[in-house]
Amino acid sequence: MSFNLCLLFLVLHLPAAVHGVDRYTREDFPVDFVFGSGTSAYQYEGAAFKDGRTRSIWDTYAHSGHTNGAHGDVACDGYHKNKDDIQLMVAMGLEAFRFSISWSRLIPNGRGPINQKGLQYYNNFIDELISHGIQPHITLHHMDLPQALQDEYGGWLSRKIVKDFTAFADVCFRNFGDRVLYWTPVNEANVFAVGGYDQGIIPPGRCSARTSCSCGNSSIETYIVGHNILLAHSAVVRLYREKYKATQKGYLGFNIYTVWYEPYTNATEDVLATQRANDFIIGWLINPLIFGDYPEIVKKNAQTRIPTFTKHESEQIKGSIDFIGVNHYATAYVKDNSSLLEMDNREFSADMAAQITGAQSDTPPDMYPVLPSGLYGVLDYLKQVYGNQPIYVHENGQRMRRNGTLNDTPRVEYFHAYIGSTLDAVRNGSNIKGYFAWTFLDCLELLDGYESCLRLLLCRSG
């Protein structure tokens, strides 16, 4: 793919594009607030089997016919063209770039020797970003566990992952931490656990429904994976704070996917169901990091299917974040469905006992409705419930079908509205430190392959 035709827009310098949204500029945001964009290793790098990289669970999943038959073997070819891409970032005025490290490129077998070519690639990429004044933000795991560890012991289903993930993080901190201050161990931990082990719609594609998945147990695996992610996360944070914090002075956060939920009606049952949805989607993994344990409603509804923390584990997990990373795209309505609790062999979504309905608007069905109040709601909810932790909006963007045109007005309107909503939250006291548009380039999307795109730049081969 060449960069012969690129669409570039600078949202911050546009006049208001959505009725009711005030004009704003960069100067309206705090000086230390950063604007950036991002992507992930499998979606961006390509070179899937070059220079020592081995297969990840995302390779296996994509090559099994998912994601509309698409895969990341070439992707955006960032492995070869990242210097060109950084020039585009400079032209756009990006202040930060969020990307992930391919574990199977850096440590091909999941543990053991470091792949020197992979190490060189990431060192060069980081240096190139910094030399152009762009702040690197690194994610360690973006749904791309080395397939070798999945095959050996089931990956995130086993507590063995804690030791291996911590060793991987140690390699990254040791080699990149002198230049990188912002780290997120796991991207969208809730989506990875639910989508990969309850619904089977993302790697590694496990669920109970044999019409969709060849293996898996949705009743327990989602909770096991979420539990092990928290244990691994806290181990990584503990390692960093004990070994690297004093000299590197970096920060480690926890990233989740969020939806803003509104009650379908004003009925008490729907209001309570909305809070349950927040407890399951946000609180399930954030509560332990702030308070040391899962929400009471999650433990009550999941019963013995959710693992418990020992007192020591609870103490280690509590406080093991420096910021919360928020991925947000859409708003939904919640209706009570407590009858689901009568089911035998319930899975995560049934434990939530709620019916989720997407927000309705005149937006085309393949796009997200433009409801920036949803992002504001999420940011304010996190402030009120979790003590106003520092927050980075790690992902936000408009989904559109790929049609080969440059008519991106709906995307511009979406970004302008949601950045404006972020500014409203800042002005209302939310401790928000940055906003990252998803995604920097056209890339492989997890559910749609190359059929849809969320992008700042449209890049077509010449």
UniProtKB/TrEMBL annotation:
<comment type="similarity">
    <text>Belongs to the glycosyl hydrolase 1 family.</text>
</comment>
<dbReference type="InterPro" id="IPR033132">
    <property type="entry name" value="GH_1_N_CS"/>
</dbReference>
<feature type="signal peptide">
    <location>
        <begin position="1"/>
        <end position="20"/>
    </location>
</feature>
<dbReference type="GO" id="GO:0016798">
    <property type="term" value="F:hydrolase activity, acting on glycosyl bonds"/>
</dbReference>
<dbReference type="InterPro" id="IPR017853">
    <property type="entry name" value="GH"/>
</dbReference>
<keyword id="KW-0378">Hydrolase</keyword>
<keyword id="KW-0732">Signal</keyword>
<dbReference type="InterPro" id="IPR001360">
    <property type="entry name" value="Glyco_hydro_1"/>
</dbReference>
<dbReference type="Pfam" id="PF00232">
    <property type="entry name" value="Glyco_hydro_1"/>
</dbReference>
<protein>
    <submittedName>
        <fullName>Beta-glucosidase 11</fullName>
    </submittedName>
</protein>
